[in-house]
Structure formats: structure tokens, C-alpha cells
Design brief:
The chain is mainly alpha-helical. It has one domain: Growth Hormone, Chain: A (Up-down Bundle). The chain contains 15 helices and no strands. Helix 9 runs antiparallel to helix 12 and helix 9 runs parallel beside helix 13. The relative contact order is 0.16.
Length: about 400
């Protein structure tokens, strides 16, 4: 298999995982209601948060195990198959209306399993030769396309049956597992020493804290939209799950289509400009969504959010690959996904609390403003990471 085909196949795995996960988001209020919980925001917060608690709890372990054994594929397959089984279980729980803590336990397991599959699939892309910005751009477009299509398709599936997105997700994870076994395992031959390698890697390369912080705040915005944005669009504009999916798709469309060219651009000009400018524009556009007077303006602003996110996302992930050594790249990417998952969790919980206590506008201002403050505050640190100009983080290999 050529590197180009490997890149396309791995991007397909990443696409399937993200597409499957996002199918649920447009109808979370309807899903938690079907599970016996009448408060969409109050129950939706722990429902989404439990998955990312599972990711946080397990993703570094997945990366460390992968680096320690020198294998990626078995863990991608195991996480995907396990995720499929948990989504089938959740579909069954809809029919029996169990205690909500049982639902949250299943969601925790889903996060622990599928988070590992996703993180290691992205790591496999970074293992490939051919330019890290190009590889992360491929990951980015797969992530973007998965989320862009998952939101509107999920909204349509909810119109058929509240369990339809769950069953479709289970099938997609099985497909991801089947595709993953076709790809050669390029994990570095060196071995690391277990879970503590993640902390040790950050100590050896403290500069990783910079992209980690950007990942934290970027993903908190995504978590915010997954719950608070969904409830906001439905309550503010009277949208159903299908309409909500289309509006979320207005963000994910440009986020998908622009990630690959912007990833290649970061190989040529360096990471600083895409990360800093993209993050500043990203935060500004998020605030604009909260100020939008109608659904049409909100849709246009969501397009701008997607374009800005596409500028900073692949460059941030590529920066992780630049700073990490080949032997511990799996752990470094797992650490990035770990803090990103913490950010997603923070966006769900903090966004839900802010919206519930102070209103949606305050929540949008805080989330968007945090992104803008980070871009300004960490600009000196970004500049220090590129002392030699664009050559410092170009397309060279390990």
C-alpha cells in the first residue's frame, strides 16, 4: 500500500469515528427525554460529559500502551469494536428506560473505548512520511467531514426514530475496525515505559504545553456547541433536530473543506500565524453567533467559525507532532487529545452552568472571549517556538 493510500485509508477511519459520534449531537435533548429525563439542559450536561470523562480517564493509557508495544492497529480495532457494542447497549436502554446512572456508565465506557480508537488513528497519520502538515490536514478534513455530515444526517435520523443514530453509530464503528486492519502498522520500534511516559514527555518537552493549551480552549468551544449551542438553536430559533443539524453543519462544512489546504499552508509558513490568527478569529466568530438576531445571520456566522477553526486546528496538531520525538509521538498526541477532551468536558459543564445561571449571551461571550484572550496571551510563546522562522516547523521528517 502506498503512503497516499495509507493516508486516505486512515483518514477514512478517522472520518467514520467522528461521523458516528456526531450523529447523536443534534438530538441530544430528544434522546435524554426518551431515556426518561425531562430536562434537556440539566440531563444533557452529564449525558455528554460522561463520555468525555471516559476519554480523559483512558486516552493517555491507550497512547502509552501503543507506544510501549510498538503497535497501533490492535488498539484501534479493540476500541472501535468495543464502542460499537456500547452504542448497541445504549439503544437497548432507550427501550427499557433504566436509571440514569446506568446510562452515564455506558456513556463513560463509550468515551474510554472510542477515544482511544480516535486518538491512535490520528497518531497513525502522524506516523506517516510526507509532511506533517499534510498528514494532519488529512486528519483535519476527515474530522471536519465526519462532523459536517454527521450533524445533518443525525438530525434526519432522529426524525425516523430516536434510536436510529445509535444503531447507525454502532455499524460505523464496526466499519472503522474493518478498515483499520488493512493499514500497515508504522509505529516506531522504540519502546516507552507505560502510562508515566505522558507526563515524562511533557517534562522533557515543556513547549508542548503551548499547543496543549490551544487544544484545551479550542475543544471547550466544540463542547459548548455540542450541548449549549444545540439547546440554544432549538430554544432561540425554534429549530427541530434536523434544522439544528443543518446549522451545526454550517460550521463543520468549511471546517472540513479548508483543513487540508490550511494544513499544507502551515508546512510552508510555519505554525505561529495560523494558530494565532485562527484562534483570534475563531473566538470573535463564536461571540458573533451569540449576538446573531436570526437564524440566517447565525448560519453565516457559523460558516465563519468553521473557517477560522480550520485555520488553527491542523497547525496546532502539527505543532504537537513537530515537538514530539518519533518514539513518544503516540503519547504526545494522546496527551493532546486528553487535554482536548478535558476542554470538551469543560465546555459542556461550564457552558451549561453559564447558560443556566446567566443566560446564553453571557455563555457565548465567555467562551469566545477565552479563545481570543488565549491567542493574544500565548503569542510570545508561539513566536519563541519558531526561532528559525518557518523552517523550524516545516515539512521535514524525524
Amino acid at each position: 500500500m502506498t503512503v497516499r493510500r495509507e493516508r486516505a485509508t486512515l483518514a477514512g477511519v478517522v472520518f467514520a469515528v467522528l461521523f458516528a459520534q456526531v450523529l447523536l449531537y443534534p438530538g441530544v435533548p430528544q434522546l435524554v427525554t426518551a431515556l426518561g429525563e425531562p430536562d434537556p439542559l440539566g440531563a444533557g450536561t452529564p449525558f455528554l460529559a460522561a463520555e468525555f470523562v471516559g476519554v480523559v480517564a483512558a486516552v493517555t493509557l491507550w497512547g502509552a500502551l501503543s507506544d510501549a508495544t510498538g503497535r497501533r492497529i490492535p488498539f484501534v480495532v479493540a476500541g472501535s469494536v468495543g464502542g460499537s457494542l456500547t452504542y448497541l447497549l445504549l439503544a437497548w436502554l432507550v427501550a427499557v428506560e433504566p436509571p440514569f446512572f446506568a446510562v452515564l456508565a455506558v456513556r463513560f465506557a463509550q468515551g474510554a473505548l472510542t477515544g482511544g480508537a480516535f486518538s491512535l488513528a490520528v497518531t497513525m497519520l502522524l506516523d506517516l512520511p510526507g509532511g506533517r502538515g499534510r498528514n494532519t490536514g488529512a486528519a483535519g478534513i476527515a474530522i471536519g467531514l465526519g462532523t459536517a455530515l454527521g450533524a445533518p444526517v443525525g438530525g434526519r435520523l432522529y426524525a425516523v426514530d430516536v434510536r436510529a443514530p445509535l444503531l447507525a453509530t454502532a455499524g460505523l464503528f464496526l466499519l472503522a475496525a474493518a478498515v483499520a486492519v488493512l493499514v500497515p502498522d508504522r509505529a516506531p520500534a522504540e519502546r516507552l515505559l507505560g502510562v508515566r511516559a505522558a507526563v515524562a514527555g511533557l517534562r522533557r518537552r515543556p513547549a508542548l504545553a503551548v499547543p496543549y493549551l490551544f487544544g484545551l480552549v479550542d475543544r471547550s468551544t466544540a463542547g459548548f456547541f455540542a450541548l449549549v449551542g444545540t439547546v440554544y438553536f432549538q430554544s432561540r430559533f425554534g429549530l427541530d433536530a434536523a434544522g439544528t443539524g443543518l446549522l451545526l453543519g454550517a460550521f463543520f462544512g468549511p471546517f472540513a473543506l479548508l483543513q487540508y489546504p490550511f494544513g499544507v499552508l502551515s508546512d510552508r509558513i510555519g505554525r505561529t500565524l495560523p494558530v494565532a490568527v485562527g484562534s483570534l478569529a475563531f473566538g470573535s466568530a463564536v461571540v458573533g453567533v451569540g449576538l446573531a438576531p436570526g437564524v440566517a445571520v447565525a448560519a453565516v456566522t457559523m460558516l465563519l467559525v468553521g473557517a477560522a477553526g480550520a485555520l488553527c486546528a491542523p497547525a496546532t496538531l502539527a505543532l504537537v507532532g513537530d515537538l514530539a520525538g518519533g518514539a513518544d509521538r503516540g503519547t504526545a498526541v494522546a496527551g493532546f487529545n486528553l487535554v482536548g477532551s478535558v476542554g470538551f468536558l469543560l465546555g459542556i459543564v461550564a457552558g451549561g452552568v453559564l447558560a443556566d445561571r446567566f443566560g446564553f449571551l453571557v455563555a457565548f461571550l465567555v467562551v469566545g472571549g477565552s479563545e481570543m484572550l488565549l491567542a493574544v496571551g500565548l503569542l510570545p510563546a508561539l513566536l519563541n517556538l519558531e526561532p528559525g522562522g518557518r523552517a523550524a516547523f516545516g515539512s521535514g521528517e524525524d
